[in-house]
Amino acid sequence: MTTAFIILLLPLVAAASNLLLLRKKANFSAFVSTFSAAICLVLTFGLIRQDDLNNLGSFNWIKIADLKLDIGIELHGLGLGMILVVTLIGFLVHLFSLGYMREDAGKARYFSGLSLFMFSMTGIVFADNLAMMFIFWELVGVSSYLLIGHWYHKNTAAEAAKKAFLVNRIGDFGFMIGILLIWGSFGSVNFVEIEGSLRNGNGNYDKGLLNWSVFCIFCGAIGKSAQVPLHVWLPDAMEGPTPVSALIHAATMVAAGVFMLTKVLFLIEVAPTAASVIQYVGAITALIAALMATQQNDIKKILAYSTLSQLGYMIMAVGFAGLLSGGEVLGEKASNAGFFHLYTHAFFKALLFLGSGAIIYACHHEQNIWKMGGLIGRMKVTSFTFLIATAALAGIYPLSGFYSKDAIMTIAANKPLLLVIGSFVAFLTAFYMTRLCVVVFFGRARSWSSEEAKEVPLLMLVPLLVLTIGAIFAGQTFAYSWFVPSKDIPHPEGVVLPLILTAIAVAGIIAGFFLYRGRDQEPYPVQVLSRKFYLDEIYIILVRIFQDAVAWVAKQIDRLLIDGLLVRGVARLVTEIGSVLRGMQSGNLQGYAFLFGVGVILVLYIINAAIG
Amino acid sequence: MPTLNEYLLMGGLLFVIGLCGVMIRSNIIVILMSLEMMLSAANLTLVAFWRFGGGEGLPADSYNAQVMVFFVITVAAAEVAVGLAIIVALFRSRQTVDVEELRSMKG
Predict the structure, then answer these.
(1) Is the pLDDT of residue A176 over 90?
(2) Closest CA to A181 of A251, A264, A247
(3) Which residue has the higher pLDDT, A202 or B4?
């Protein structure tokens, strides 16, 4: 049993014991989960400092003819950073949850869900082949479903959980097809083996098919990382408890799509068509999510759209891996930039979500920003951390977001259109975050819940402060090289682009500040944006049209063929034969005698004829 | 002295009369009597075949046919005993011996 396997399985053990043994002992189960997360964090520190990361353990799971599926662990490069982000943020969120969920009735269920998620997410990071990754991919989907629907008695939460699961299924279906295509082309699902046969050129693959398989795999990322057009589940997923939003729907699970793309980087490099699809999907997501974020009123929804938009950035950056630039594909440069943003984003977005959780907790579960206000005086520490995170997200020098956003823009500069979109999104990001902060922290309190808001307990402040340190310093070389030892930090070269981007961010902040200062309600309502481009409505109509057609056909088949012919037809046949035969049962003694006699004669005749 | 044909004719006549009685009459006691008549017809035929079974107007060597007749008489006696008992029980419960009225088996 290697350390890696312990890190993988410990949360599973915690989840199982919480769910099976400790249902009634909520406090103890919370402790078990948090403790397992802490141990995983410590073990991870040890693991990534190991010199030899080549043999972390692997065993054969299924072998059917040519198909060989392993459960194995592969950890190098960006995976090191990812596993550290997962365990670190995971632990902090566990800690925060101890405070946030203190009085929740379903505490044991909640913490077993968190542990199950930690197990699944670790599995994704560790996976050394696509099939194993897919298994854990589905498992994070399940745990996300369980946690979004934690307050299942609330109809909206139950619906949101269902929506998240179903929408993810669509993407996962593409992912599965992609895996099968890869297996068909290369005869293996193992990352190292696929890369090997690709490099040697002895893989019997077709260029067009490869593009399709990369696109199909990317469908998995579209679902999990909530890219357009499957982004609709993420804002609804905010129905879950806020720490869950921080962990799953901001820092780790939704970033799994990006991470998965960095794992199949060698495929994207040779599939330029699919790569440009990836870039544009990312850019469009970044743009429309940022637009939608400017008009939301729910504090968590704003952050959710912001997450979508930042994920779009990352996806776009990774997509550039397949772009030829100066006779060479961008490859690792692009994926490093994407991952760099994933890593800094994990800190400041988790911080923003936990901060919003603290605000919601303090405001008696009020989530509408127009009912808050003036919180900076009443929640000093929380406000301070939140503002730092906002500045980081907006890309203010020298906070972490500045470096990662600039790294992405440096990559995006290879395509002017995407650079323009990206810069505009940067402006919008600064704008809507300033709007949020101005409305929530400044001005007057707009309801009793914000008047009575008090600073949250220390247990919840500690994770905020730790994450603040991350949000400030994560972009520095010493921090990044500690998380991802083997890769160079993708800091931008030159000063022109960073200066322009800073100017854009500052412009956004100024615009947001002056437009929303002293307002008590949305001064510039834009229906199209606040209704999210009517996408949900369009989907409902599409689903209805399609589903109604299928339902009609199914109904006709059911009514006419199944019911009419098979079920009732058989019954009618039996009835008809019965009513004919009933005539023979006359109840007349002599009639029976006669029939008996005729029968005897017939039998004798037949026997006679048979004997011949 | 009557010939075999005359015996057979007599047997056939008795059988048909019995059959008609069974098929047509509605009194169940008469039906039972008609059944007895049919059995007697069969007995008569058997005995007749024995009597002329040896050829040239002589009886047959074996007594198989006579044994058969005794069996039939025995079975008939048992059948009448059982049948009459059933009829008595039927009459007690239904107050009738008319088969036209005993139609509870009609489907």
Answers:
(1) yes
(2) A264
(3) B4
Residues of A in contact with B28 (CB under 8 A): 589
pLDDT in tens, A328-364: 778 888 888 899 999 999 999 999 999 999 999 888 8
- A594 Cβ under 8 Å from any chain B Cβ: yes
% residues pLDDT > 70 (chain B): 99
Task: Inspect the interface and report whether the beta carbons of B107 and A594 lie closer than 8 Å.
Answer: no
Strand partners, A129: A190
CB A430 within 8 A of CB A512: yes
Q: Which chain A residue's Cα is nearest to B25? A: A590
Distance CA A315, CA A223 (A): 12
- The nearest CA of chain B is from the CA of A608 a distance in Å of 21
Please state the length of chain A.
612
Cα–Cα distance for residue pair A291/A313, rounded to 1 Å: 14
Rounded-to-integer distance, Cα A477 and Cα B68, Å: 120
Alpha-carbon distances, residue A413 vs A19, A392, A495, A529 (angstroms): 50, 22, 14, 28
Residues in chain B: 107
pLDDT band for position A388 (cuts 50, 70, 90):
very high
pLDDT tens digits for range A534-587: 888 888 898 889 988 999 999 999 999 888 888 898 999 999 999 998 888 878
Domains of chain B: 4-101 (1.10.287.3510)
CA atoms of A26 and A13, how far apart (whole Å): 16
Lookup: tokens for A156: 């909206």
A588 shares contact with chain B (CB less than 8 Å): yes
Q: In B, which residues are within 8 Å of A585 by CB distance?
A: 105-107
Residue of A nearest to B24 (CA): A590
CB contact under 8 A, B23 and A582: no
CB A335 within 8 A of CB A441: no
Backbone angles phi, psi at A153, to 5 degrees: -70, -15
- Interface of B to A at Cβ within 8 Å reads 22-24, 28, 31, 99-100, 102-107
Q: What DSSP state is assigned to residue A328?
A: E
Does the pTM surpass 0.80? The reply is no
Which residues are A60's β-sheet partners?
A70
